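Bug report (template v2)

What were you trying to do?
Predict the complex of my protein with NAP.

What happened?
Run completed; filing so the output is reviewed.

Input:
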Amino acid sequence: MSKVVLVTGASSGIGKSIASLLTNKGYKVYGTSRNPNKTGFDFEILPLDVTNRDSIQNCIQLIIEKEKRLDILVNNAGMGITGPIEDTPTEEMKRVFNTNFFGAIDVIKEVLPHMRNHKRGQIINITSIAGYMGLPYRGIYSATKGAFELAMEALRMEVKEFGVTVVNLAPGDVATNIAAGRYHTPVFDNSAYKENYQANLELMNAHVDTGLSPDIMAKKVYKILQKKNPKVHYKVGGFMEKFSIVLKRILPDKMYEKLLMSHYKL
Ligand SMILES: NC(=O)c1ccc[n+]([C@@H]2O[C@H](COP(=O)([O-])OP(=O)(O)OC[C@H]3O[C@@H](n4cnc5c(N)ncnc54)[C@H](OP(=O)(O)O)[C@@H]3O)[C@@H](O)[C@H]2O)c1
């Protein structure tokens, strides 16, 4: 019997690649979008807004009614935010936390009872290498993903006894629509950060455009699903992106900060 998978945020980018590859590998895949009228997918698309509890409940209920179970959740839906922290509207910060942190956790809360009933399940969270350090002008995004990683480390220990595995998969820059879907704090004319932020916005968008193919993330998810005893954390990215996590562990804080600032030309 094919395993039943839910991939949140499967209308584009990483989620779409994951959902397509798993479909090709024989899984029964349900992808989601806030706009399920979008077409051209080789898997079924269900409506889902992770910031709306009713929408989450309806989505999971639909799958359970049809399949009687849900084996795998790829918790991928998310959005970005850029801006100097001082200039970023707090409401926008909350919106990103509601999506990347609370929304992703609300999806987990809805699938866990079904996984516990079946005494097995796999949850793969798409986090971010940006969650391992505070990146200038992306501090709030880093915070959503870093906070989510920590909560998931805890969840993994809590649900182990029920046969449920939790894995965090952190990508570096991947060439997707994320820059278009991000909330960009405007570059205000009177902002104290105007020049540095403007220069960094261009740098960030260029990094995404030259990022890895989302298919590499899909292959990694498939590989993780084959493992009997998966690790807590996986990272996919360029050498320096992954190495920057190691450097943060071993370098004195101020030396690491200097490296980051020079990378972002600050
Ligand atoms: N691209 C990168 O460089 C990168 C790096 C690190 C981590 N990530 C993470 O990877 C994940 C996928 O991002 P991506 O790069 O593939 O970006 P993307 O192409 O913009 O895709 C984002 C997906 O999330 C969905 N989504 C956004 N807000 C949602 C909400 N409130 N409820 C439900 N679905 C929502 C979108 O679906 P609809 O708009 O159709 O609803 C879309 O399918 C995100 O969690 C992101 O933070 C990306």
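What did the reviewer find?
The beta strands are 4-7, 28-33, 44-47, 72-75, 81-82, 121-126, 164-171, 183-184, 233-236. Residues 237 and 243 are 10 Å apart (CA to CA).
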